[in-house]
Write a sequence for this structure.
């Protein structure tokens, strides 16, 4: 069973104009009429200079459906408000997520995946003899739901029966956050380092932000998402065209990624100065 990860916008509070008005209170000018161009200039200034509190005056609320392993990543964003379906109140539906294509383990990044692999598990109700050791292995989720239903039928409480379904079991929750912390979420979860499955949700949230807060999201993308931040050793490497002796291999490889985007005449020789 392949399930869809979905993220639906259900409520919005505020607008770009409200964010700009909140910022104007700093100099006692909250109700001063302003043009879109003035709001845009102010919002871009706020993002550029890290004046984040006006962005906390705007909020968005979503209904999200995703497997538990994605929910585990989302819940780490502690500033969001969260309410989730309960496996104590309700029986879990036999509803789990599997990738359309199984990816292989990355050989360069311990937490990432690479291209597809030919791995293909068999579903429980596929043809074939389960006792045949040469047959494809039945997918664990089917077995887990079989056991879950067996426990419920035997009268085990839902709060205990639910211990066997897998990380791929679908769950759903309401997620609300303010724009400042949504930007932080997008910075981390639209990045190439984030798992592709949570990026589906991050892209949907970015889409909702671009419709409802276009000036703010543009400023955020210009000054944060697509910006390059340089550390002091990286500035030294750029200005001296050599690798500072304090730079570790990992820092150096991070720097080379940035240098490729900047495309300066930097020597890619990794020997230290
Ligand atoms: C690619 C990637 C890999 C990750 N890998 C792991 C992993 O292996 N293991 C793991 O456990 N986590 C992992 N995480 C989760 C990560 O460490 C953060 O917990 C998560 O991204 C939430 O970020 P946040 O704290 O900025 O967000 P929020 O919790 O929304 O917090 C927003 C901001 O509020 C402030 N804040 C919130 N709570 C506190 C606090 N208690 N004290 C001080 N300031 C606070 C901080 O400034 C924070 O940036 C990973 C995240 C990413 C993006």
């Amino acid at each position: 069973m392949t399930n869809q990860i979905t993220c639906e916008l259900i409520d919005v509070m505020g607008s770009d104009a409200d964010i700009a008005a909140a910022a104007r209170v700093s100099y006692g000018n909250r109700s001063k009429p302003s043009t879109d161009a003035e709001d845009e200039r102010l919002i871009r200034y706020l993002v550029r200079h890290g004046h984040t509190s006006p962005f906390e005056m705007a909020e968005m609320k979503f209904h999200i459906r995703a497997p538990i392993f994605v929910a585990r990543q989302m819940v780490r964003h502690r500033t969001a408000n969260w309410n989730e379906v309960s496996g104590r109140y309700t029986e879990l539906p036999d509803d789990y997520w599997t990738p359309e294509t199984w990816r292989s383990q990355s050989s360069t990044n311990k937490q990432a995946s690479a291209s597809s692999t030919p791995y293909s598990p068999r579903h429980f109700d596929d043809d074939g003899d389960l006792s045949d050791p040469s047959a494809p292995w039945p997918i664990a989720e089917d077995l887990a739901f079989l056991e879950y239903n067996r426990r419920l039928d035997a009268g085990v409480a839902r709060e205990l029966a639910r211990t066997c379904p897998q990380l791929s079991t679908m769950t759903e929750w309401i997620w609300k956050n303010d724009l400042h912390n949504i930007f932080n979420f997008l910075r981390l979860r639209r990045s190439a380092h984030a798992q592709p499955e949570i990026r589906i949700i991050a892209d949907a949230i970015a889409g909702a932000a671009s419709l409802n807060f276009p000036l703010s999201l543009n400023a955020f993308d210009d000054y944060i998402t697509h910006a390059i931040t340089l550390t002091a050793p990286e500035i030294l490497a750029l200005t001296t065209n050599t690798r500072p002796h304090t730079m570790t291999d990992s820092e150096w490889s991070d720097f080379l990624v940035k240098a490729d985007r900047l495309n300066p005449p930097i020597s890619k020789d990794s020997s230290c100065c």
About this structure: The pocket of flavin-adenine dinucleotide is lined by residues 76-79, 181, 184, 188-189, 193-194 (CB under 6 Å). The radius of gyration is 24 Å.
